[in-house]
Amino acid sequence: MTDILVLYYSRFGNTARMAREIAHGIESVDGARARVRTVAPVSTVCEATHDAIPEEGPPYADHNDLSECAGLALGSPTRFGNMAAPLKYFLDGTGDLWASGGLIDRPFTVFTSTASLHGGQETTLISMALPLIHHGMIYLGLPYSEPELTSTTSGGTPYGASHTAGGDSQQPLTDAERKLCRAQGKRLANTALKLGTDVR
Ligand SMILES: Cc1cc2nc3c(=O)[nH]c(=O)nc-3n(C[C@H](O)[C@H](O)[C@H](O)COP(=O)(O)O)c2cc1C
Questions:
Q1: 52: which DSSP letter?
Q2: Is ipTM beyond 0.95?
Q3: Ligand 1 site residues, Cβ closer than 6 angstroms
Q4: What is the sign of the dihedral through the CA atoms of 172, 173, 175 and 178?
Q5: Ligand 1 centroid to 71 CA: how many Å?
Q6: What is the average per-residue pLDDT within 68-95?
Q7: N or C: which end of the chain has fewer CB within 10 A?
Q8: How many CB atoms lie within 10 A of CB 166?
Q9: What general EC class does the enzyme of this chain belong to (predicted)?
Q10: Mean pLDDT of 119-130
């Protein structure tokens, strides 16, 4: 069984819902299994600490999750057109993996949720791709053979799946957004299996 990491941060649950759809797409591929992980919030109070185990939802990721998985789907809500700080903080701690070249040639894909349709989906997706490109990973977007990429009136971009959550962050995923999440997970799993990355 090949593990694919779905790693995300979510404050209001939208990016978490996308992560579940992407995991569903990954697990539609024979031989692939989704490993879903999140990251802890960060605090401006430097002595603040967080419980080692979250109260609910998936466990927090560690570096073993990255090195043991043959592919990565990375998700974040937008923060001023950029990825959220907790995810950036986690990635900024992966210098050891960068130095060892541990993630070179592994495929990755990115997904995001924003409040508004033009609130920075593409820039957020690209902001998440940048550190992974530095790691030597291979960027997988969404191809236009997915019909929802052309027909969507909500989220969905060639740079990765996206969701428009609305000003109150309460809008559910549309059918197009859900289908694109699943297609993205499926493509990531198929590609990881074809590349046959040795993660032992
Ligand atoms: C500090 C901050 C900055 C934000 N910046 C943007 C933004 O630039 N564009 C936008 O559309 N939404 C912005 N939002 C809204 C969030 O992206 C939205 O709440 C998020 O998509 C919900 O995802 P979640 O449910 O996974 O937390 C911002 C929210 C916060 C708290």
A1: S
A2: yes
A3: 10-15, 77-81, 113-116, 119-120, 165, 169
A4: negative
A5: 26
A6: 98
A7: C
A8: 14
A9: oxidoreductase
A10: 98
44, 74, 80: residue to mutate for ligand 1 pocket, most atoms within 8 A of CB: 80
pLDDT of 135 > 90? The answer is: yes
Instruction: Tell me what the pLDDT averaged over the chain comes to.
Output: 96
Pocket test for ligand 1, best of 11, 21, 78, 117 (most atoms within 8 A of CB): 78
Average pLDDT estimate for 140-167 = 98
Domains of the chain: 2-195 (3.40.50.360)
Q: Which of 75, 94, 86, 92 is nearest to 14 (CA)?
A: 75
Contacts for 18 with CB less than 8 Å, ≥ 6 apart: 8, 75, 111, 113, 161, 163, 173, 177, 181
For the segment 20-63, what is each residue's pLDDT rounded down to a tens digit? Answer: 999 999 999 999 999 999 999 998 888 778 888 888 899 999 99
The pLDDT, as a whole number, for residue 45 is 86
* Residue 123 burial class via C-beta count within 10 angstroms: exposed 0-12, middle 13-18, buried 19 and up: middle
CA–centroid distance, 27 to ligand 1, in Å, is 28
Q: Which phi and psi angles does 160 have, rounded to 5°? A: 150, 165
Q: How far apart are CA 63 and CA 93, in angstroms?
A: 9
Cα 79 to averaged position of ligand 1 atoms, centre (Å): 5
Find the mean pLDDT for residues 100-121.
Answer: 97
